[in-house]
Amino acid sequence: MSDDRSSLANRAVSPSPEEAARESRHEVLRELLGAYADRELPPETVAQIDAHLVGCAECRHSLEVHHTLRARLAVEPPAAASPAFRARISAAIDAAPVPTAPRIAADARVTPGPRMLWLVASGWVVATVLALTLAVTSGSASRFTPSTRALAAPVHDVPLLGAVVDDYARVSRGDLPGRARDLDAVRAAVSFPVEPLRAPNLRLLAAWTTDVRGEPAAVLAYRLDDRLLVQYLVPEDVFFQHPAIRAAIADHHLLRAADGDRTVVAWPDSSTGNVLVGNVPTESLQSIWRSESTR
Q1: In which residue ranges of the chain is CATH 3.30.200.100 found?
Q2: Is the dihedral of CA 221, 252, 287, 141 positive or negative?
Q3: What is the pTM of this model?
Q4: Residues 234-251: pLDDT tens digits?
Q5: How would residue 37 be classed by pLDDT, with cut points 50, 70 and 90?
Q6: Are 256 and 156 in contact (CB under 8 A)?
Q7: In whole angstroms, how far apart are CA 153 and each of 157, 242, 257, 258?
Q8: What is the CATH T-level fold of the domain 148-293, as seen in this structure?
Q9: Fewer beta carbons within 10 angstroms: which end of the chain, N or C?
Q10: What is the pLDDT of the chain when averaged over all its residues?
Q11: Please, are residues 244 and 152 in contact by the beta-carbon 8 Å criterion?
Q12: How is residue 158 annotated by DSSP?
């Protein structure tokens, strides 16, 4: 019996094969970002990284660091050491014991040569790089806060969004299919991560699974200022299928669309696509996204 419990515990904490494969691929692509920024990769690898960057905020941020450092180092020559710093180096060399130097006077001063000055300049370059990295990191939240971009096609011309809007209309007319405590069951039923939104003005009401045009989806229903807001989570390959969605979210934009009095916004996470639907203003949904992006 104890062996059975141990086996069950190991299965509970071990990642699924899909999750392990996804994380392994993520690590490989992340290690290639430097070469990608320097345009040193073959076209087929560049295409893979392009597709990965659309849905991975972590790698987009890392690439931004690479680009910033590359651009700064390309235009700014190494800074020369200050006279005071060179004087301290000379003093330190003078104070060091000289094992065998019979022809050098005891009070002779040693002037740093080209190699020493190059090492000093390199130290300043390293300090500049570290400072830039900290600056990019501290400003990343504001840099990646998106503006909205309208969908360039009617909602029902995009199969994913049309199916989501129709399902929302059906759900909003009747009782909610699930309860909030069913969230663990929803997570167990799909192969992608399911995390509820945590904006301060939201309260999770229910969670269940459905299919969107034959594809699995997790559905989470919220109360937003006494209105119903429904979140649909789908796998990233399903989310990115239609070119109108890819165009609307390019360059870190938040997709927005309308279907009658229903508002739709959508954005990608690391391995899923999110679609929010509700009879609420776009600004309210955009503020929820901004709250999520700073988590």
Answers
A1: 148-293
A2: positive
A3: 0.54
A4: 999 999 999 999 999 988
A5: confident
A6: no
A7: 6, 11, 9, 11
A8: Phosphorylase Kinase; domain 1 (3.30.200)
A9: N
A10: 78
A11: yes
A12: S
